[in-house]
Specification:
363 residues, alpha/beta, 13 helices, 16 strands, 26% strand, globular, binds S-adenosylmethionine
Length: 363
């Protein structure tokens, strides 16, 4: 059965449109046909999009420096490890800094990606394979550093639209045999809704209802440590800005972005930007402290990413490194769209990555 048929069946079985979160969950994570479960190349130039660790090893090397400040003999846990390259970068640099963790755990939903991650590690840094362990669930009594790069943006979201003083959920229905948006009848209510009622008619946005439970599970599974969430996103004020009236939903296929989740189903990525104020609120409710929020650019600069350029003597390699740093830190590239947030439990260290700029008060 094709993924389209499976989704159609769930709409028919529901006797009603399904929520966009249900659609997105099937499109990305259906156990057989979901985008992240398929064998297609997802990451990098031959895939659909490029993430920061795919752009440059310096991304992971810089994160390793930040880890070395707070590891304190603990372990690392990475969520959604993509191709596995970030794990390689972090462990390589931590080895150089003589600060290797005993374990580098990975929680990855996709069996295909687990295999790809194993292959990447075996190919580039086989000596660290024994240190890496894939987990099926949150560990207990975890101590150390948790990292999630571009994971929250891949969580299934609700889509809502404003009309005559209320937000309504936009479900997914089958109309003339095709998937399409269908506004539900009852106003959509959630504590995550924007407070203002001054939205223009038709203003559309997304609400991530799954992030709070996930953040709470992080808190519960941790004895002490720091969580680094790196993703494209913004504060609540920017997220619900009147100019962002079509929301933040984006799809990626073959390095082309669109806002049509109903094409290339199971073959394209679907994402929504992260509302970091909402993440901070959930984190504080769980018991975390927000120990930093800044742009990717200032995070990497604070960690001294330019020193990798200064230390390189080979001209050709320097030119390549300079190009990669530009891609990671320039505002028009990945520098400002991406943010880094740190959450800490029983740890009160002034984190190096937020030394130059900490925007926590804007959340
Ligand atoms: C956009 S990719 C990012 C991959 C990688 N972190 C990188 O930066 O290249 C999103 C990843 O998050 C994973 N993911 C989504 N929800 C997850 C969850 N609840 N737990 C663990 N991984 C998850 C997906 O399987 C996928 O590997």
């Amino acid at each position: 059965m094709k993924l389209e048929n499976i989704i159609s069946k769930s709409i028919k079985d529901n006797n009603n449109p399904i929520g966009f979160d249900v659609f997105m969950n099937l499109a990305l994570y259906h156990h057989k046909f979901g985008y992240y479960r398929s064998n297609k190349t997802i990451f990098g130039h031959k895939g659909d999009f490029i993430t920061s660790p795919e752009v440059s090893d310096l991304f992971g090397f810089s994160i390793a420096r930040q880890c070395s400040q707070v590891l304190n003999g603990g372990d690392i846990l990475e969520f959604g490890a993509g191709s596995g390259i970030l794990a390689v970068q972090i462990l390589f640099e931590l080895g150089k800094l003589e600060c290797l963790p005993k374990k580098y755990y990975i929680i990855e939903l996709s069996a295909q990606l687990r295999n790809i991650q194993k292959d990447t590690i075996k190919k580039i840094l086989p000596e660290i394979l024994d240190c890496v362990e894939w987990l099926n669930e949150f560990p207990k009594d975890f101590k150390g550093v948790i990292i999630a790069n571009e994971v929250l943006d891949a969580f299934p979201v609700k889509r809502i639209s404003f009309s005559k003083g209320h937000f309504y959920e936009l479900g997914v229905d089958l109309i003339d045999g095709k998937f399409n948006w269908k506004r539900l009848h009852e106003p959509f209510l959630s504590s995550k809704m924007p407070a203002s009622k001054n939205f223009q008619e038709g203003y559309t946005t997304e609400i991530n209802l799954q992030s709070s439970a996930w953040i709470n599970s992080l808190y519960e599974s941790m004895n002490e440590g720091t969580v680094f969430l790196i993703d494209y996103g913004m504060t609540s004020v920017e997220f619900f800005h009147p100019q962002r009236h079509q929301g933040t939903l984006k799809c990626f296929y073959n390095h082309k972005s669109s806002n049509d989740p109903f094409s290339y189903i199971g073959k394209q990525d679907i994402t929504a930007s992260v509302n970091f104020s909402d993440v901070a609120e959930s984190a504080i409710e769980s018991g975390f402290e927000i120990s930093g929020f800044t742009t990717q650019s200032m995070f990497l600069i604070s960690l001294g990413i330019e020193s990798f350029l200064k230390n390189e003597e080979n001209d050709k390699k320097r030119a390549k490194i300079a190009q990669e740093i530009k891609q990671l830190v320039l505002p028009g590239a990945m520098g400002e769209v991406f943010k880094v947030m740190a959450l800490s439990k029983k740890q009160s260290v002034k984190l190096d990555g937020f030394r130059e700029l900490d925007l926590t008060s804007r959340l």
